Queue: 4 jobs
Job 1
Amino acid sequence: MDNFFQFFIDNRDFIYLIILSIFLGIEVISNVPAILHTPLMSGANAIHGVVIIGAIIVMGHADSNNTLAMILGFIAVLLGTLNVVGGFVVTDRMLEMFKKKDKK
């Protein structure tokens, strides 16, 4: 328990920054109009392709004998890919709603 308190004392500035960022993020997102929420979120998901690049770089630098690092890196690449693909799918479905329908 002493280790936890020592960690908190040593890193309290960073912990306060994270807590402030959480409250700021909640405030910003709650004030986004509903009509803009889906396009912003799908765009943000597509931008998160950086996660895939980062996971690939980390896996490349990991020791090949470290199975845990390889498994976590693979999971990060997989989840990042799903996030990016989901962002593009949501954006595509949203744009389909605004296309004019052909009359037959």
Job 2
Amino acid sequence: MFFDFGAGELIGLAILGMVLVGPDKLPGLAVQAAKLIKKARTLATSATNELKENLGPGFEDLKPADLNPKTFVKKQIDAVMDESSPKPKRPESKIDPDLL
């Protein structure tokens, strides 16, 4: 997903956690961390759903990755171009020989 942890890193973090927190408090800390992650996911999901509702029709398939301005504008322009006419051919770009 977001982080690329291997087995060595996870074992190192577990040992570091046992040293810093202590083996008796570590399970409770892990439970609290899991609850925090679950709460963050539900908050993100509810915010995305609320955004979809407020934007209105046409945004039912909105994903958080689509909120990048470049992606958002490109998606909207592609939707308008598909509705109006077939896509025009892109002109071939030619390299100026003086620049080489």
Job 3
Amino acid sequence: MIQFNVPPYAGKEMEYMKKAIDSGKICGDGGFTKQCNKWIEEKTSAKKALLTTSCTHALEMAALLLDIKEGDEVIMPSYTFVSTANAFVLRGARIIFIDIRPDTMNMDEKLIEQAITEKTKAIVPVHYAGVACEMDTILEIAARHGLYVVEDAAQGVMSEYKGRSLGAIGDIGCYSFHETKNYSMGEGGAVLISNEKFSERADIIREKGTNRSRFIRGQVDKYTWVDKGSSFLPSDLNAAYLMAQLEAADKINDARLSMWNLYYSELEALRDAGLLELPTIPAECKHNAHMFYIKLKDEAERQRLIEHLKANGVASVFHYIPLHSSEAGMLYGEFRGEDRYTTKESERLLRLPMYYGLKAEEVSYIAGKIKEYFM
């Protein structure tokens, strides 16, 4: 069976975890955590990067930093993971879902403005499959209306928009280092701060609402509780595991892109024959091969192809059920505008195996079985 996902492993993970253990400090903000933070800052040019226990927690930190309150509205696509919405719902916000673009599966930037009211506090673009949303337009709308932009770049590590790293374009960005992502620490994430007004408070919120970071820097003679917060710090063992992969980030990225390109070339003939659709990468976007998906005629055909692939030893999956159609989505949010593409496109999309270590012959085999299905 060709698995859908295999967690990445670069080779030095165990060595670095042993170093963390031998250092005598395996709790949060140890040496490897600091190395990871620095790597992200240097790679993305974010003002500050802080590892978190998950991308979910990075998003929850963003909601705290923005002082999201009961009655605020936050605009995002319905086609996203539940954490994107939950982080703001936990602070009392109402989620305003808008439609997506069928080409990239990202929020349709042309629909944002009509969804804005006097209650709107933030826009949350989700960079689906590591392909950037139209950030220039989103930032311009946000600036004109005095709104914050929080990038859900869970899938966007190493991706760019017009030469700028995803996650470091808006006010705050959020990364995921879950085992299904390009770089993993098992469970983990990072919050990226590009708006300096949030920099010091991010340290406080992440440190249970204390000014411990200022104490460590010698700026205060003792630390105490100064703000709301929680424990968002991952173990340094997790950071050690991640650092091994960040050091090999280019190698991992190149390998994934090679398999992504092979999928594309193998399936182009089916696309040209009108039997399926392939991903679209806008010219201004540099993606990270986070996933390879195809789109079928409809949900029924997708299910038939899933079963065909499974019978031939290939695991494939569909993705999000649009949040606005869920029980909690209807309770805590609303779809503003027409659902022209969100539901229809989500029902057609099928994800194929994609991970570091996937072999060219496996990609060719999978593509061959898809071709066989259409014969």
Job 4
Amino acid sequence: METEFKNMWDDVWNETEQAALLEKLKQEVRFANTAKLILTALSGNPEGATKKELAAKARCRSTRFRDTLSQLLEQKKIYKSKIGKKGMPFKYRLQPWI
């Protein structure tokens, strides 16, 4: 009986898969938290905000911030201005520019 249960448990419990699942869940939670901070910073701001301003509000690692910003752009939850140059950086906002 004990060996049957152990064999059955071994089939269900795969340590590698569990670790990968937990890592994926951690990344999703981190993305959601960072995205919430970025979207909150942009809400009620029709002029938009620069990447530097958003990074200051997000208060997270730069890699996570850049990845989250890219994903939000891909998902079309935020939009980036078409013009950005030295002294006039790109601006991000919730509504597309017309």
